[in-house]
Amino acid sequence: MIISANNRLIIQRLIALSSSILNYSTKRNNNFKLPSYTSESTSQLLKIFNNRGEYEHAFQLFDMLIKQNNVSIMSLLTILDTCIRSHHIERGRQIETFINQSIKWKDDIRLQTSLIKMYMKYQMIDQDKISKLIIRTKKKKQSIYSS
Questions:
Q1: Rounded CA Rg of the chain
Q2: What's the CATH fold of domain 35-145?
């Protein structure tokens, strides 16, 4: 793989961000605060960890996002994919509970489709659960029925 000068700078920046995130203490003592990164950069880091197979790093980063209240749709979709790849179905169930508690994400069709995919992959879902997930979404599209 040939890395151009532009890509090299981006890769170096992502590596620097990832190492600073992973080495940062999440404890809130005295004046310590969690670093704030844009949700776009953290979603990219989650995707990088997921693609590299560094699932524990992805879960740690996602936990940090929850503590910062900086979770986005893309980070949720990526962490659900991480749960599927790493066979952490219990973690996926916890994330489903987190999604269902949020008014903002509860009816998102992409998240519901991803949840169906996760449960179908491990054959842990029956027709009733699928129906409930589909009915819960307000905007039903062909993509959710074909997942």
A1: 17
A2: 1.25.40
